[in-house]
Amino acid sequence: MKAEKTVRYVSAEADSGLQHDSSSSIDSSTNTIVSTGSIDILLLIDVQVAFDDEAYWGSKRSNLAFESNIKELLTSFSRRFECIFPSESKCYRLEIQEYARPSHGEHIISKQQNSAFVGTNLEDMLRQMKVDRLCIAGLTTDHCVSTTVRTAANLGVVNHFNDTGEQVKGRIILVEDAVATFKRGGFDAETVHQVHVESLKGEFCEVMRTAEVVDILHRKFYQSE
Q1: pTM score, two decimals?
Q2: Rounded to the nearest 10 degrees, how much is the dihedral formed by the CA atoms of 194, 143, 150, 78?
């Protein structure tokens, strides 16, 4: 049973008290400003009930801490945007997992391809917001998550010009313990997961763990007080 391709995003900028700041450094190789993270977005990919179907996906999923880490990220990324539910989500198999249910005001973007950027307005929304740090989590590591990370990097969706006309180089972060996948062919789920994370690391994104991302957000919160 295949899952509807749905992407959700929430921001950490407002409700938690996080303030927009202009802290940055210079990337000497490109002569651009490298943002230290003024506007942070959490992008959740395909966290849906359909992935519980062991008859289709199998029972050998990677990262047993996936659910708890998603919950922790959602607690830290506390601003919510307007929800837009596709009509197809009324079906049980397309229902968003209970632990990741959207709050009032979050966006739900229905996608028909592996990449969250194909056939959606996600790129336009992120560019308009001038996102500095895009954190990506969800399912599955080697399919929709990987494709979305690669597309985000290729499009440069976190690169923008600030209010003074300076170019800002944002950051794409794959939260490695908040993504998961399944056994593929003769390869166990953890091997598939780790190989794809390593393939993305460096060229397409930074790789962090949930605790590291949460620590960054908490430190930014206390610095703003």
Answers
A1: 0.81
A2: -90
